[in-house]
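forwarding from the other thread:

> can someone predict this with 5,10-Methenyltetrahydrofolate?

sure thing
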Amino acid sequence: MTARLIDGKAAAAALRQRIAAQVARVSDLGVVPGLAVVLVGEDPASQVYVRSKERLAREAGMVSIAHRLPPTTPEADLLDLIRRLNADPAIHGILVQLPVPKPLDERTIIGAIDPAKDVDGLHPVNVGNLSIGGEGLLPCTPSGCMMLLRDTLGADLSGLRALVIGRSNLMGKPMAQLLVRAHCTVTVAHSRTRDLADECRRADILVPAVGQPRMVRGDWIKPGATVIDVGMNRLAPEPGQEKGRLVGDVAFEEAVEVAGAITPVPGGVGPMTIACLLDNTLTAACRAEGLARPAVAA
Ligand SMILES: Nc1nc(=O)c2c([nH]1)NC[C@@H]1CN(c3ccc(C(=O)N[C@@H](CCC(=O)O)C(=O)O)cc3)C=[N+]21
């Protein structure tokens, strides 16, 4: 059996198109959603991501402003910028690209963002609302994973066994919360988990997010399971190549023979993350301006 491929690139393009149509409607009402992306330092991968966030936000009709700060930026300066963005009525969403260079403190920085503009969904108020089912902003990568799961399995995921590998604040923990909200039976595995392969074999939904290239092997996967691979690992370049290949946390060639459906890397979860960022920015703009989210045909 060969697994169905879950095309995150196409799903993200479709979502961005729906968002663009909604942005056009609210723009007619005088509200142009504004996104500020803050990048501290010169990490090349982060620069690439920030550029594509800027470009895709503009393509959706939003205003997108990147703030690039030197790696030695004092924390007080960064907090000052965040305060100005919090107060700027043209900015509805603020994202500080992570990780931030040392000695900047991620928690202090995220905590300084107005929760209503926290389009990463990482501020403690949004994290709390996620856990109690309130109306916050959801973290982008887990939201994107849920959309791909529902596209694949249908809206109702209740009763399915889900295994999330990884317990980060950015991904593992919020993913587990969303799966619980969707009435799955959820297990969170991590570096101290015993018999990870056995845990995997019980999962109808498998979501590895650890950053270990090809860690999940084909014979760890329950036949027919849905695999959402959140890993983004750049391998060492082959001789004669400039850049190494991008692979996930799953040994794709093995897994594709066993799973029912699987996301590729690249072209799976990654593009959905950015589309969900735009979705959050539109949500934040509508809430800030007291507008209902315009309806568009799906
Ligand atoms: N505050 C914050 N929020 C984030 O959401 C955030 C962050 N910091 N720091 C870094 C990670 C990483 N991330 C990705 C987004 C899109 C792709 C993506 O579109 N990937 C493409 C290909 C990328 C390539 O070829 O290099 C794909 O998977 O098909 C990847 C990674 C967001 N992150």
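The CA atoms of residues 84 and 233 lie 35 Å apart. thats all i got for now
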